[in-house]
C-alpha cells in the first residue's frame, strides 16, 4: 500500500510538470493541431507517461493493449521476420497480429536460461523478441529482466514486452528492464476503453507517428486526460485488490470452505485467485455466483466499469495447458470488493449448487 501511495504521488507530480492547472480542469483539445499534428493535450499526456516510466517517449494509440502491441510489432519488424517467443500458448490477439503482419514465431522456453541461450545461438536469423510480462503457463517462473538480459547477450535484438496486467503493479515494466517497447492498455488501468499505450524508444515511436497523421487516428485530448486520471487512481485501487486477494487465499487455505481443495494467487494474465475444488463443481459454482451478484465475465479485467467481484472460468492459456482444470477450478478477481463479500458469494454458490444436484 505504501508503494502504491508513493506511485500515485509520483504520477501526480509528473502531471504538474507538464500541465498548467487550468488545463487539467478541462477536457482538452481535438484534432490535428497545426505544427503538432495531434491534440496538444495528448502530446503533453504522452510526455507525462514517458516521465512516469523513465522512457524516451510514449504514444497513445487506438486498439487498446492489443492495438499497442500490433503497432509496436509493426514498428520493429518486417513481413517474414523470425521473432522469438516463449514456448507457451500465445495470447489470441497477439497471435492474430503475427498473422496480419506476416511474422514467423520461433519458440524457446524462457524458464530455462541455458535452453534460451542455445536457441538464440542456433538461430542467427532472429530479428527480435516478444515477451509477455505476466504468466502464460501455470508453471512459468521466468524473470522478465533476466530474459531481456539473455536476449541482449546475442546482439542488439529489439524486444517488445506485453505489459498488460503488469503496468503499475510491478516495480519495473519491460522498457525499464531494457526492452525497446512496452505495450499495455489504459482500459486495464481505470482509463478509457480502446486506448493503448506504448512506452519506450523514441525511434520506434517516431515511425508510428508518421503513420498516425489522420484525424481519426488521433487520441483526442479528453481521452488523453482520462488516461492520466486512470493512472492516478489505479495504483491504490490495484493495491487494495491485491491485499484482499491475499486475505481471501489465507481464509480459503485455512479451511474456511471445506469444498475448496486449494487456493493460490497467480499471475494468470491478471493477478487472480485460483480456487480448486475437490469435485468437478466449477460450472455450477459459477452459475450460482452470478445469481448472487458476481460479474459473469470481464469487461477489461480491472476496468473502471468493474466493481463487483469477478467469478470466471480459468484463462484460455490455462485451459490449453490442461483442459481438465476447467471442471474443478475457477478464477476470482475481487476487483473493488472486500474478502468478506468474495467468501460469502463463494460459500453460498457451493451450497446452492449442492442443492441442485
Supply Rg: 21 Å
The overall pLDDT average reads 94
Give me the strand/helix succession: HHHEHEHEHEHEEEHHEEHEHHEH
Number of helices: 13
Biggest sheet descriptor:
7 strands, mixed
Say how many strands there are: 11
**3D shape:** globular
Uncertain runs: none
Helix content: 40-55%
Portion in beta strands: 15-25%
What is the spatial order of strands in the main beta sheet? 1-7-6-5-4-2-3
The rounded distance between the terminal residues' Cα atoms is: 43 Å
Structural class: alpha/beta
How would you describe the overall organization of this protein?
- The protein has 357 residues and is an alpha/beta fold.
- It is 43% helix and 18% strand.
- The protein contains 13 helices and eleven strands.
- It has helices spanning 2-16, 21-24, 40-52, 64-76, 92-101, 113-122, 144-152, 202-211, 221-253, 282-291, 316-321, 325-328, 339-356; strands at 57-62, 82-86, 104-108, 126-132, 159-162, 181-185, 195-200, 260-268, 270-277, 310-313, 329-333.
- The chain has a seven-stranded mixed sheet with strand order 1-7-6-5-4-2-3, with helices on both faces. It has a four-stranded antiparallel sheet with strand order 8-9-11-10.
- The chain starts with a helix and ends with a helix.
- The relative contact order is 0.13.
- The mean pLDDT is 94.
